[in-house]
Write a structure and sequence with these properties.
Four copies of one chain form a homotetramer. Chain A has about 350 residues and is an alpha/beta fold. Helices cover about 35% and strands about 15% of the residues of chain A. Chain A contains 13 helices and 13 strands. In chain A, helix 11 links the parallel strand 9 and strand 10. Chains in contact: A-B, A-D, B-C, C-D. At the A-B interface, helix 6, helix 7 and helix 13 of A face helix 6, helix 7 and helix 13 of B.
């Protein structure tokens, strides 16, 4: 490697194909600024290990145990393009070494927040339910099918989790002027108050809100955060948007209340994917059913590539990254999100 | 009628039942401030004509030809609670006499705008379509069902009509930072530019927009504003939200393009209501079907009553109304909206 | 007058010179669309009376008693370009005849609101006071001169009057996330609540607010609305922006509290203009002194001309005006604003 | 130190007195949650060194060379409460050790942004200049003193630097709907575009903007970023708000153009503080003079204490800080801001 060669970027393409996350333009610029080496097989002793000592950055999430990191003496950044941090990386060594550990969560935030808002309006107004009725000649005109209709305007809305998605959703909800309650155990009250929301315990949030967005990531602490007791705290007639990960809620408890006509729910994430074909959820009128689609748009994927390109460029210029999420040393080991398959 | 009796308000309840548009609280205050006379039959010579000479205001839309208005010497306001101005009133005489002619359009604006946004996100992301697929075990996980997904963020959005609904929708769309094109023949360019939108001809709007909201009211000029030629101007892959009145569009032209897979459309208003049971629209996957539901919420209806109460109170205090829409002398005779039935 | 001649507009230029309110472009378009007749002397029997029977619209505020209006059989609109409605017009006849009576208040709103915000920040932070100190070598660095500094962020702000200026100011203040209290006797509580503000009595507003904007227009009722009793309700250390008309406040009461170091005030309107040269206000450190400058910008003046052009064009097309303020029949006779001289 | 003792926080109070940055409430909570040791003299071998091995966090900015950090084996965070990062800390060792290095810049952002906006409106409308004129009986009523008045509404505004202050200012400027150009060499274009602004080179920004805010921090690269050549690029009649640090501009070049009547400028930071008593700036009518006051409010100072308390609490709970600015490894050594004295 001579001085004049652009920095080497190892593109480990097992999970997200290169042409899904990079537009042709982004890929062209990436190749102009960096020496891009695509590696499809990162098994030990292979091509990945060969290039590791020269790598300036790794894009993807290959196994990076201590030994490998020790050999990657020029490494400045690991850019995770899958949305979750898994345990196959020795993060402590990265932090000690000053290797940036970056995640692509912000790339999905806009897509997920828009989708969550769409689901909430659907639940508030019965859009998909009445569309189904129309198709079998059972449509109900005017107010006949709107007995349970809600306006978002000036409503009581609760956000469980206030990370990337919560912040975008907060922005999208602002013109509805809701009373917004937020629970996020990683944030002090002041941060929530500063955006005009009310920091609230989960129990109080569930009791006070007409529309609840479940946005929490999975950790040991948040597993079944929405357990049966809490599901039962929700107000009769309220609406639930489940859009982060299935593990944060007791699904049977949610479905029981939907079956009883006490809740309406939109569910985008499921304990098993695909769901069993005979599962009772498939026939419930009180559900909006969605197949893990909230963030899965082409525009989200290519935004990942754009972020990777921007941040690699900054880091190569001796500047800190500005677009991807900087992994927090304290949190990176806590996430228990399973990959979407 | 003595001096001490509160002003007489004739409540002509044929179309909107009193308890639908007034909450119990609003009705109680109305009765405390005014002498409320409910009249269910306003046929000539009946109770309505008996009270007319003493009436301070009429709520509802009974026939008010010149002769009746001549007898209503104390009349200060006619408050239309049906959302449309029909031709059974001698509006010219009202204006000459200084009788306020007020409409309840603003009461529906929030409900319609929220619904329109919900329909647009549904079209952008396939929410109801994929819900239907899920129910028959055909759900597509992650990006499999999102090949045609769009983000509203930074998209090209067109509004045809910029009245009550358009203005609320503009507010709801603001955080998506769209490039917003607006066509409204009743407004100068400056008014549209002042809200950060681009005044645009219908043809250009249809060609440039990814998502089009049809919000125009029906007049002689706007009938089939969206005719076949203009429908065919819409970009392939674009989305259409039809939410004002059916007469403004050529439905068969719209359905032809949806059938061809070139457009996705959400339709809330129909040439006939109810629609024929065998109509082809009922089976099109590219449609979101809705039965004239956009404004038909309980919260919209009771907002009418609140507006009536507020404006009657202001007028009785010698002040101009502040909440209902003041009918424009130039426009009141132009509307051709048919009543929703 | 033949059919083909464009409608006649009488431009009565006594108060606002034509080239102040019209840009060259606007004037050119006006002349292209209308037959513009400039009249500098509108005394009885003169040129004005000669053209009156043919006039489509009058721009300016000549005397328009019943007799003149009777002769103006083609008149469709009177466009007041001075900001105040005076009693030299028979408004009742205008309304009966369906002649639009339009005011240019909205043209000034942006300029006044920006200026009011600038005055408020000056009062909050001592900008002009410390600038004066700097000029005499008495500047105080860092916090030395900021013992009384306030942030607007999350502060208690009161608006007395919620008309054109109040609405723009509300928009400018929104990102400061204040607790906003509003008093406006012409509006129902719902209208104020709908913009996220708190409808409040004058006394309560003055007691609760840290920054008070006096925006009320002068009527019989609002004269000395801010009388000595109410001035004395203001919190010690609070700030007052007086920017509508002098008659709404007891100036001596305000100055007494400023002199006592209890209030800071910015005053743009004065009981006499020019103020007596030896008036005590001129030397008070607790004042920001301003010579009726809030709305007096070139951009405001030419906005009047743009509004006149737009609304004349709409009216000539058979549409209602959309930019100027439509005078309310109930209010037009109440204003007691003296002209600014 | 037993297990049960709360974590030890060393409060090194040389620069910012404890009771200035902590409200009594915050200090009470701090003492309840932590073992707070106030240290006024941190000279080598003194009390500071004695407690260092037990310290969980250091609040203040004592010298922290490698040797001291080596002894601070329990150290988790250094919280700088002075707004600038100086070179008396071995930052590299902090990062390697995983010691959080936090700055209080965000505490000042609101105060500085509000002040900057106030200065800009003053420059746009001549508030302090006309206040001075009024005090010597030379006030000019109405438009007489407003020949050079500008509206912020829809104006061309440039921000040089888009850090904490720039982001708040962006929010405050949003309702003015400016065309906003931003130069920040540490950010990719996408970040600037994402907030609706236009990424622009310094030269182009200066040529295109009517109002320029100089918000850049001092680094080797930004010293005299606004040099004479660039000052001369500014449009005649434009306005300059200098509010970050003096070193980023060629003051004589700015003053020359102000003296020539070509620019109006508000200056809050000076090459020397205090400025020489006979300096020509003190008499220029085209300046708003301000003595390094932008951030120096009591509310800013106590916000530092609140942030310190919140972030110490989070870190003690094993969570990342959420309010103070996390120092970037790449940038912390670059700042050349001199302390305000």
């Amino acid at each position: 490697v001579t001085n004049t060669q652009p920095p080497i970027v190892l593109l480990v393409t097992s999970s997200q194909p290169v042409d899904v996350i990079f537009t042709p333009d982004a890929l062209r610029v990436l190749r102009a600024r960096f020496t891009v080496i695509e590696i499809s097989n990162d098994s030990p002793g292979g091509e990945f290990d060969k290039h590791l000592p020269d790598a300036f950055a790794i894009v993807g999430q290959p196994d990076l145990p201590t030994g490998r990191l020790r050999r990657a003496t020029k490494l400045k950044a690991v850019l995770n393009v899958e949305g979750n941090f898994f345990s196959n990386v020795d993060y402590d060594t990265c932090f000690q070494r000053g290797v940036h550990v970056l995640g692509c969560g912000p790339a999905y935030a806009e897509a997920v927040a828009e989708y969550a808002l769409g689901l909430a309006i659907d639940l508030a107004r019965g859009i998909s339910r009445e569309d189904r009725a129309f198709r079998i000649g059972m449509e109900r005109y005017l107010d006949a099918g709107s007995a349970d209709a809600l306006h978002l305007r000036a409503s009581d809305i609760g956000l469980i989790g206030f990370g990337n998605v919560g912040r975008v959703l907060h922005r999208l909800l602002a013109p509805f002027a809701p009373t917004l309650r937020v629970y996020d155990p990683w944030l002090p009250a002041s941060v929530i108050e500063d955006v005009g929301a009310i920091p609230t315990s989960p129990d109080e949030l569930l009791q006070a809100s007409t529309i609840v967005f479940m946005l929490a990531t999975v950790t040991a602490e948040s597993t079944e955060l929405l357990d049966r007791r809490r599901v039962n705290l929700m107000r009769s007639g309220s609406r639930l948007v489940l859009i982060s990960r299935a593990a944060v809620a007791d699904y049977e408890a949610v479905l029981d209340r939907v079956a009883a006509g006490e809740l309406l729910a939109a569910i985008d994430v499921w304990p098993e994917e695909p769901m069993p074909s005979a599962h009772r959820a498939r026939t419930m009128e009180g559900l909006v059913l969605s197949a893990h689609r909230a963030g899965a748009t082409s525009a989200s994927y290519t935004k990942i590539g754009d972020m990777v390109l921007d941040d690699l460029t900054l880091i190569a210029r001796g500047l800190p990254p500005a677009r991807m999420q900087v992994a927090a040393r304290e949190l990176v080991g806590r996430y228990r999100n399973r990959p979407a398959t």
